[in-house]
Amino acid sequence: MSYGERITLKSRRELDQMREVGQHTGEILMKLRERVQPGVTTGELNEFAGKELNRRGLNSPFLNYAPGGLPPYPAVICASVNDEIVHGIPGSRELKEGDIISLDFGVESHGFHGDSAVTIPVGSISTEAEKLLKATRESLYEGINEMVPGKRLSDIGASVQKRAEGEGFSVVRQFVGHGIGREMHEPPQVPNYGSPGRGQRLKAGMVLAIEPMVNVGSEKVRILDDGWTATTVDGELSAHFEHTIAITDAGPEVLTKVDGSH
Asked: The domain spanning residue 218 has which CATH number?
């Protein structure tokens, strides 16, 4: 993994615009979370998110996204259930009691992006699933706590990995966090693993999307025939939490967090 990519620093005005789009991202994701219950389909959640984007005059950076020759992504959310790690395509699947669902959601407004994800229990879930969700969320915040000027880029992933593996889980290597701003995916890549003390010094004005994906079993990934949906190779559960965070002189500022959110 290369830590040498150039990171664009955001101006005060750009950060203000990213705060605004981050708040929209967090608010809509929280509304989606409130709609998760047994009997709801992933397609219905996607439909709600699309209507909310339209109501607010916002754009979806996910819809028709087609990097590297992949088929255009057909939805405004990623809805990944149980052993699906990320990029699950919404459709007719009904959620059942005991499922967990990861919702990944992005917003574009006035040329800036917000990106966030949360894994949600569907009704009552197993003790193992509860432990997985707690560990993944806590690993995200361990990474966020490293986002202060003077730290190194690899300190983020090292902290994520330490918490997740310390709870007996594995960290997905195939997908990583990223810079974010005028593009949904900007340099640098931010792995959720690795040794501390490597890479660029963190500076005020950097904005990164940190998104640990943590599995009960193997960290290995299998991509389904749709070209998008990534699942665990062993059918074990996976969880995904993400926030967009600005590094400031006063410490990390979570741009996609709203009252009551993850």
From this structure: 3.90.230.10
Q: 3-class SS at 40?
A: coil
Residue 31 belongs to a domain: yes
User: What whole-number distance in Å separates Cα of residue 114 and Cα of residue 20?
Assistant: 9
Task: Note the pTM of the prediction, 2 decimals.
Answer: 0.96
Burial of 254 from C-beta contacts in 10 A (0-12 / 13-18 / 19+)? buried
Q: State the CB neighbour count (10 A cutoff) for residue 244.
A: 29
pLDDT reported for residue 5:
65
> Structural domain of residue 20, as residue ranges?
12-253
Closest CA to 152 of 209, 190, 207: 190
- What pLDDT score does 4 carry? 52
Q: What are 171's strand-pairing partners?
A: 214
> What is the pLDDT, as a whole number, of residue 232?
98
List the Cα angle 229/51/73 in 5-degree steps.
25
Q: Which of 166, 251, 181, 180 is nearest to 214 (CA)?
A: 166
Query: Tens digits of per-residue pLDDT, 96-142?
Result: 999 999 999 999 999 999 999 999 999 999 999 999 999 999 999 99
Please name which of 181, 185, 182, 175 lies closest in space to residue 212, comparing C-alpha atoms.
175
Neighbouring C-beta atoms of residue 4, cutoff 10 Å: 9
| pLDDT at residue 2, as a whole number | 44
Q: Low-confidence residues of the chain, pLDDT below 50?
A: 1-3
3-state secondary structure of 96: coil
Q: Which residue has the tokens 């959310």?
A: 77
